Amino acid sequence: MSDKKSDTILNDLPKATSSILNIETGRRQFLLGAGASAGALAFGLPRPARAQSRTEITFASAKFFGKETISDVVNAYNESQSKVHVTYVELPPPSASTEVHQALVQQLARRTGTPDVFTQDVVWIAEFAGAGWALPLDQYFNADTQKQYFPGTIAACTFGGKLTALPWFVDSGMLFYRKDLLEGAGAKVPETWDELATAAAEIQKSGKAKFGYLWQGKQAEVLVCDAVEVISSNGGSILSPDGKTGVLNDAKSVEAVQFLYDTINKTKISPADVLSWDEEPSRRPFTAGQAAFLRNWSYVYGIAQDKKESQVVDKVGVAPLPHFAGGKSSACLGGYQYGVNAATKNPEAAIDFLTWMSSAETQLRYALQLGIAPTRPDVYEDAKLGAEQPFMKQLKSVFTGATPRPVTPTYAQVTLAIQSGVSRALVTGKVKEELDAANDRITKIVG
Question: pTM for the whole thing?
């Protein structure tokens, strides 16, 4: 790749975010190599061997790190073969998802082919595919290959009947519970919401926990996640199967949201404060030893086991979220997935890199070094994962029930309608009325 092309990569990054984009050591080394190539040509010297033999592609991803960084993993790919060289462009971390999204949208919309490969939040997949920015991948990853991943992640990576993303890592909602409190109450780990409500109320009544069940009711994206879980666990949905009509106001969805309202106002196992809480405010009372049950993401377990941060070390268990009678556990799918730029000029190289990055071996590496949960069920059976990350091994049963949020290219608008409608239902108690109004808005958006 010439200096001119590498300059273009930097100049094309959106001005709003370019100041926070850092290019890792591997990229700096690559640019130095490209400069050396130009200098060598100017002096009539041979071009370095890499420039002659390798196809150059770029990979843009949100920043994740642990014992290793993504740059380390990309460098391992570069060293594993001699046909492709990947330049890693580091975007902000997922906590700055708006900036990550903006950077990707502006780059992909230009259809220049840069970046060739990218990572994306699971809720952006339909948007990017609907805009024609994501390369369909079915011809490269057939049905047998797709069966090697959790079904929920493949469903989330599919738009319009085509695979337009490839699974990278998964997270989902799960139930954290106090093992000691359940044992003291003679209760089992709840499988239904009624069982959870009963156990939570009994533990509260005993005075051993201030709160029965903590969750996230803030009018934000996490409320959509909580709603997807309870609604799906009752056999309900937010969109019709074809994605063209809202069904948020059907009887099963109304019953599910009514349950959340009742945890505050009827069974009183949840404090009214949950209506203003997202992940961290709901986590803190649990790890402080004040609650029996908590719905949250996998990161909580590590904090619960940290003696500096937690009063419940070795007292916390994890299980799939409960379901309604006749339903099944549903965990809202989170995580980032891979995509290939539809305008890439080097699709074969991009697919080779993607195949390596999503392989079982690389997923195990991510799990062990960055704490990122694999999207391949078989990886959870690896003895090394069980020895080094025993908690992660427990998550296979949780992720098996992972359910994507509404798959639609208009998700950015749909989520706001869901947040507003469900929030109003929980605050006013007019559950059916508010979900009717929200469903009308959703149908107008997707119709």
Answer: 0.83
